[in-house]
Amino acid sequence: MYDLIFYLELGLLHVLDWNAIDHMLFLCALTIVYNFKDFKTVFWIVTFFTFGHTFSLILSAFDLFKPPSQLIEFLIPTTIIVTSLYNILYNKNSKNNFFEYTFSVFFGLIHGFGFGNYFEMLTDSLDTKIIPLIGFAIGVELSQLIVVLGILVINTILKMLNLISRTIYIKIVSVIIILLSLNLIYQMI
């Protein structure tokens, strides 16, 4: 039971850690276009991301596939930029849930590989890696939902105040996310 709680906390902190801003930026890029009325869709987009994230951890933890870490570290901010560009270029009134779910899984895979080496190191001496994987996945999902709820609250407040049009708000936030993600790429150089 201790292992489950330890890895659940690790999953929570993995997303809620301000030093790991890539998760926050990605979640913001994914959900900035939604409101509480879209919560079911947002829940599934985040959950599909968690599925992809967990699957790549399984691949790494069991030494089945490990892409080069430099490539993954480049692809993580790239996925954030692509998601933000999608927000800028496409009208969210015509939602394409299949596209968004598919990209959530794919981008989750990439983000999971970013944590895979560390997770493998933590679980290397354990007899079973199933409990840590389950605990970590639950922690990641819970923390992502906490972040998403915060974003949806902000979106709702801004909509109620009607200070800025929704389209302009989405584009401004998406541009800020792109700039912060480009800075992440720049820091790697």
Total number of helical segments?
7
SSE topology string: HHHHHHH
Biggest pleated-sheet summary: none
Model regions low in confidence, pLDDT < 50 over at least 5 residues: none
pLDDT averaged over residues: 89
Beta-strand segment tally: 0
What would you call the structural class?
Answer: mainly alpha
**What amount of the residues lies in strands?**
under 5%
Percent of residues in helical segments? Answer: over 70%
Query: Radius of gyration in whole Å, from Cα?
Result: 17 Å
General form: globular
**What separation lies between the terminal Cα atoms?**
42 Å
SSE arrangement:
Elements (H helix, E strand, L loop, with lengths): L1 H15 L4 H11 L7 H23 L7 H21 L7 H27 L6 H32 L4 H23 L1
Helix pairs in contact: 1-6, 2-4, 2-6, 2-7, 3-5, 3-6, 4-5, 4-7
Quickly describe the structure.
This protein has helices at about 1-15, 20-30, 40-60, 70-90, 95-125, 130-160, 165-189. It is an all-alpha fold and about 190 residues long. The model has no long low-confidence stretch (mean pLDDT about 90).
